[in-house]
Amino acid sequence: MEHPAHLPELPAHLLFGTATAAYQIEGGAHEGGRGPSIWDTYCRTPGRVVRGETGDIACDHYHRYGEDVALLADLGVDLYRFSVAWPRVQPTGTGRPNPEGMAFYDRLVDTVLAAGIEPVLTLYHWDLPQALEDTGGWRVRDTAYRFAEYTRIVADRLGDRVSRWITLNEPFCVAFVGHAIGRHAPGTREGTPALAAAHHLLLAHGMAVGELRAAAAGDVGITLNPDHLVPATDSAADRAAVERARTLHNRVWLDPLFAGAYLDNEKEVWGDLVDHAHRRDGDLDIIGQPLDFVGVNYYRPIMLRDAPHTEPDPTARTAVDIGTEQVAYEGVRHTTMGWPVVPETFTEMLVDLDRRYPDLPPILITENGSAEDDRPDDSGRVHDADRIAYLRDHLNALAAAIDAGVDVRGYFVWSLLDNFEWAYGYDRRFGLVRVDYERLARHPKDSYHWYRELLTTQRARRTTAR
Known about the structure:
three-stranded mixed β-sheet; 13 strands; beta-glucosidase activity; Glyco_hydro_1_beta-glucosidase; Beta-glucosidase; cellulose degradation; carbohydrate metabolism
């Protein structure tokens, strides 16, 4: 382990945690009255997920949550970010809550609190009840109303113990990776309907904020994944390509949320795909309600260049076919996700975000981490030096952003456990803790011990600062 002097030096007020998501760790897919989600369906569609794997068992957190909370307590985190599975609460996405599902989250929250850790609850981490997808899913406005109803149920049950709430996780991935690229559930390649999904996700967020405020549930935010976008060259064409991508990746969420406006260049980016039929007067007021924090997930930068549209017919394009092409970063290490490791771009993204949106609330870094080629030695120990270096360098980059005036209040490593990594199945490992998927045994990696040492040092700084 590193000497404390070599650990990142961060402000004493900064809170630390780790994060997980329901479908990626819970398992128990057919237990306790849980209904099917779009990811259950997607995983059973041939060719969608590596080796046809599913989240049916995942890490079996549904049964082993006590063991996992003990790992969190040993780690010494301040916060634990988890998500509630909508189909475990409402199996068909509507109607009365499922008692067994709510009882599970009661037990989980109580166990986290008993360990001296503050729970941070994400209401939606991509597992839409399949019954709602069958009636249009996020493409239709009614799903936003159903999400508000679901939020009210969870807030009424857990609002007395959970004081930090995240409405949505990465709506970019829901609307565009799921509905336009097709690499996530529901696995479609759409144009205008994907843009409608983006709007309805924002509307659902705003309605959920209203429900949480009415329940006096505590601090409320949303988690986005703003991308740091770099032009491949300094040509006017490549710089214009980055601006189009900035609209697709970042502005479509940030402008309605924090600037009170729809996009001023949507026609330039999407052309004939833009259709305002799904918008109603007053929607921006609902979407743009003040928040207590914004969650930011960050992993890597993206380099882009101008390129022809994939589909020549403008009316037949998907919402991501905007005339850009991704370019590989040269001369840097890449994680097993194929993502370039460029820590200074973390600083640049946060400073840029802070400058572009003066009304941005305080930031929580709700995910940051790396998938690595973790191989246990003969004793079962994982010496994941690359992950430690990634976390150290990104925490130093975070410190630089804070020094530049960005108001960051917390940081979460993704993830506590190796888990079901969506379309990659169990082929990518992000965890501080290795999961043996055959035996479901947990084995803390070197990065777990490194992070624990960092948190011990951080607690000492807090004591000194008092």
